[in-house]
Amino acid sequence: MSRRLPPLAALRAFEAAARLMSFKRAAAELAVTPTAISHQIRQLEDGLGVALFQRRTRQVVLTEAGRALHPDLVRAFDLMGDAVAKVQGGSRRQVATLSATLAFTAKLLVPRAGAFPLRNPGWDLRLHASDDPVDLAGGEADAAIRYGLGRYPGLTTQPLLADHFAPMASPQLGPLAIADLRRLPLIHFEWGAQATKISVPTWRAWIEHAAAAGFDVAGLDPQGGITFNDENSAIQAAIAGQGVALLSTALVAAELKAGLLAQPFGPVLDGLRFDFVHVAGQQDRPAIAALRNWIVADVAPFLPQA
């Protein structure tokens, strides 16, 4: 059966531009000029008789026809890649990249990373640890675990875990009460870029919450103590007995169970939530499906429940 298809180069140009939402980025990925990408997509639109993009100043947006075409093209190119890999005798391994915060990666992903290749033969896992969100539309990662309010325009969101924060300290400091916060250093960590966009749990927020709940926290300095630039370092400092840290109960669940940390008193402060996210409309991409299946089967069951 003969197939009357548009030129493959034009389809590749459209798929890359739609995935990256940028003619310039598509050009860089395909090693051509942005003008060539624009010309190929225009030829494709002329041949199909429909507009696939709305051209705006410094931005392109998929039309309804473009949104309908793109997912099927993604699957088609993925299938072609799989076919080539089979011919090559399986020598062409594929890589799925997941981005998450430094602490979430270290505490909840690294211990279960070995299950990924077992569940997804022929695939390798790349973990990208960063406290600043990566550009998923720009192809910096296939998917991410974001910490926030769960509202991410242009992304599909799958909730994983609602977070909570409480004072944590090493048991070697002995039994502690709230009054001990006046003599022990408070351990802080910096939240990075996300702190400018959402309200994140801090010692100041905890002190205000405790005061409203009737606890005696008068005179506590919400800024004094020791500050680290990442959450994982703050966890290690608390384990080492350097002071009292306000930590995620989810991220230190293993340390609490092992007796490396203790939660000496309350109250508990509600945090935000962790979500598995990827670019909307790309749920059937093999890399995203492999990551999602691993998270659901091998990571989510071990996450602490509220």
TrEMBL record:
Keyword Heme appears in the UniProt entry: no
Pfam families assigned: HTH_1, LysR_substrate
Domain HTH lysR-type: 6-63
GO MF annotation terms: DNA-binding transcription factor activity; sequence-specific DNA binding
InterPro entries cross-referenced by the UniProt entry: LysR-type_TF_proteobact-type, LysR_HTH_N, LysR_subst-bd, WH-like_DNA-bd_sf, WH_DNA-bd_sf
Keywords, in A-Z order: DNA-binding, Transcription, Transcription regulation
Superkingdom assignment: Bacteria
CDD domains in alphabetical order: PBP2_GcdR_TrpI_HvrB_AmpR_like
GO biological process assignments: DNA-templated transcription
Family per similarity comment: Belongs to the LysR transcriptional regulatory family.
PANTHER family assigned to the protein according to its UniProt record, in alphabetical order: HTH-TYPE TRANSCRIPTIONAL REGULATOR (PTHR30537), HTH-TYPE TRANSCRIPTIONAL REGULATOR TRPI (PTHR30537:SF74)
Listed name of the protein: LysR family glycine cleavage system transcriptional activator
Lineage: Bacteria, Pseudomonadati, Pseudomonadota, Alphaproteobacteria, Rhodospirillales
